[in-house]
Amino acid sequence: MPVATAMLEDQDSAASRMAAPSRFGDKAFEWLTLGMALAVILLVFLIGWQLARGSTLAIQKFGFHFLTTSTWDPVAEQFGALPFIYGTVVSSLIALLIAVPLSIGTAVYLTELAPLWIRQPIVSLVEMLAAIPSVILGLWGIFVMIPWLRDYLFPLLKKLFGWTPFFTGPIYGTSMLAGGMIIAVMILPIITSVSREILRSVPKLQREAAYALGATRWEVTRIAVLSYARKGLFGAGILGLGRALGETMAVTMVIGNTPQIAVSLFKPGYTLASVIANEFTEATSDIYLQALFEIGLVLFGVTIVVNLLAQLLLKTMTTKTATRAVQ
Amino acid sequence: MHSKDKDRHRWRKFKSGLVSFGTLAAAVLVIAPLGLVFFHLLVNGAGAVNWDFFTQLPKPVGAPGGGMVNAIVGSLELLALGSAVGIPIGVLGGVYLAEYGSARGNAMLRFIADVLNGVPSITWGVVVYGLVVLRFKGFSAYAGGLALGLIMIPLILRTTEEVILLVPNGYREASLALGIARWKTIVNVVMKTASKGIITGILLALARIGGETAPLLFTAFGNRFWNHDLSQPIAALPLQIFTYAISPYDDWHRQAWAGALVLVMGIFCINVLVRILTRDRAGTST
Q1: Does residue A55 have a pLDDT over 80?
Q2: What is the average per-residue pLDDT within B128-157?
Q3: Would you state the CATH architecture of domain B53-277?
Q4: Interchain CB contacts (distance < 8 Å): A and B
Q5: How far apart are CA B284 and CA A318, in angstroms?
Q6: Do A280 and B126 touch (CB under 8 A)?
């Protein structure tokens, strides 16, 4: 049907084209689409250029100290990003510690162990979790998760692990640990669905060979599947790390937004993305705004490197990247 | 000896069962937040979603009632502006990757698009602030729409490419054999055949950016009133939810829950639509 309509439309011009087959339309269309495809390269450079341009003064003024000092005082115009770098790294690591085992466990369940009828419904639910906006998870975090953490989980942790430096001091609720936990929820879906895609790409023969040797289900999974998929699963974790580093709204709402470097996870923290979200519109002086642009530049640089690494790791596992199922 | 083997076998079986249970528990824990968030959205939000919510402007602090009609309309306007940027570039770029180019160059572009998908959304806000807000000396709906549109580009590009590659080559050959120009073949035959998939990709991208807050904080900025001029700040539902959630007022908290419920419902409606559209292409979407 589409062919027929296209042909009809073409009929009146058929004679002229036979006389001199013009390839102008073809060339123009190809160049047009090429231009649009090249936009992705342009965008990467645009981000880098804009962030660098916006922070030139700050880079000149603070130099390398920007990354290694921890005074953040807009009034005195002293800007050191270390507390934010620390907060971003620690909250992301907490998130990975929680999310990676859960996600890979779920992926194993979904590809190796679960009854067939339940697999698709769980996959759909994971996709629905991915569709919940960060700001809504943050809202839930403020009014539901934080009170629960403050009244139940944190006191319990303090009782059990209070002898370590990580679970000491007063409990406010809003804290580095809460930030890490909410990031974990945000990155669960992507790690789960990428891991699942990786495990599904493990050849059936691998499993059959292990079963033939008399292995139990878990032994098959461990020997034939997980060890084969190791690299890809690592890539899935790194992809999750990339998302965790840049996660903004939900973290901003529960982490406490205090620029400090504290060992105790009950203490509030601050992340690179959060400080941009909170202070950007309040930046009154040029140098303040420049410092925030520089934080954006740091965040962009780190996430680009992490994402490059993740894509490289995933590419060796599957020809088709699975990142699109859950964006 | 014999019983030792049996014990060992039993132990291996037990271990296998234990791990199976562990992975099931992991799956339950992954799904749990979804259930909890939904439950609390309904409990806290359902009471505040009423006719006023969809028809009234926000009330000042202290005055009960009021709604978010300006934010809902604002979000739709921002989505429209974003689409104007994201859809043409994303779809045509995807067409290029599927129909033209060299394998190597395209793999590179694909790779960059995937990396671009991982750029934190707040980064786009900072970039558009520098590009548009600083230059034109003010927050505006245009700036917010541009930020959302840029986020859409890599998303739509990749889904479009994927569905266009699914179109059988016979279709292209049949059309070309009739003497139809290649670009007309692509537009009228290939893209038309893949249109359902392309629309699905666009809808998924809209569902994703519809909940974005970070890139709007300092581009669209938010507005407590109607916006009659796209070069002025504009309200957006996610922004309004954020502002209300971190405020100290109970009335506003209730409104935040109601807004969140409405936003989630909107996003899930799009997802259901996508599911209906992709129902007969089993295996390609999940």
Answers
A1: yes
A2: 95
A3: Orthogonal Bundle (1.10)
A4: 322
A5: 15
A6: yes
